[in-house]
C-alpha cells in the first residue's frame, strides 16, 4: 500500500557532492519503469530529484524541473496521475558574502519561474523540498586549540614549514573536508590572521589529533607563527560535520556551547515558552541571565560545565 516516488537523474556538474552516479533514473528509462510499476500494481504518485549537495549552478534546477515535467507527461500518457514534486536539497546556506546572497536569489528566481511555467498553482501538484544543508551549512563556528607545533625545513630550500596540531580533525568535525569538500575558512582569536602585510608569514598545515596521516585539515597556506594554546576558529561549520564524527583514537567530539544574542532571545522566548516550562530557568530568568552576563568577557580556556545547573 506504499506510495512511491520516482527519482530522476540530474547531471549537475557544479555540485560539491554529485549524487547522480548513485541515485536517479535517466529520463529515457522513465517509460519502462512506469510500465513495470503498472504491471506490478505499484502506486507511483510523483517525481523527485536532487541536483547535488552544494550545487552552484542555478541552471541545474531548470534542467531538473523540466525533466520532472517530462516525467509527469509520460505518466499521464500511461494513465498515471502524479500529484507530488520533490525539489530535493543541496541548497547553499552560507551567506557571509554578497556573492552567496546573489546566487541564492538566482536559484530561487530560477525555481519559481520554472514552477510558474510548468507546475502552476492550479496544477494540483504538491511541491516540497529538502533544504537540510540550507539550514545547517553555517550552524556554528568551531573553536580548536593548538596542542603542539612542529617546524620542518624544506630539503629544496631554506624555507620553514610549520605543522600545527589541533584538538579536532577529519575523524571528528572535519570529516567534511574529506566527504564534503569543505575548505577551512579560519581566524585566530588572538587576531594573528589580521596582522599587517609586513608581518612575516610561513607555509603552514593544520593537522588533526589522531595517528592517521590522512587526518589533515588544511595544507599549503600561509600565516604568521602561532603559539601552543592559541585558539583557531573555523567559520561556516554545520552540514556534515559533527553528524558524522567519531571517537577514533579516543578523541571525543567537541563540547557544544549554544549562544543566542539577547535581541534574538527576546524574539524567540515567547515561541519557546512551553519548551522551557519544565527547565531549570524560566524564560524571564534566562533573559535576566543574558542581561547580567552581557558585559562579562568570555574565558575561552574555561572547562566545560559538569551540568546545566
UniProtKB/TrEMBL annotation:
Any GO BP: putrescine biosynthetic process from arginine, via ornithine
Record domain Orn/DAP/Arg decarboxylase 2 N-terminal: where: 2-136
A Pfam family per the record: Orn_DAP_Arg_deC
SUPFAM superfamilies: Alanine racemase C-terminal domain-like (SSF50621), PLP-binding barrel (SSF51419)
GO molecular function: ornithine decarboxylase activity
Highest taxon of the lineage: Eukaryota
Cofactors required: pyridoxal 5'-phosphate
Stretches assigned to the Orn/DAP/Arg decarboxylase 2 C-terminal domain: 137-238
GO CC, one annotated term: cytoplasm
Keywords annotated in UniProt: Lyase, Pyridoxal phosphate, Signal
Annotated signal sequence range: 1-15
Similarity comment: family membership: Belongs to the Orn/Lys/Arg decarboxylase class-II family.
Protein name as annotated: Ornithine decarboxylase (Trinotate prediction)
Biological source species: Myxobolus squamalis
Lineage of origin: Eukaryota, Metazoa, Cnidaria, Myxozoa, Myxosporea
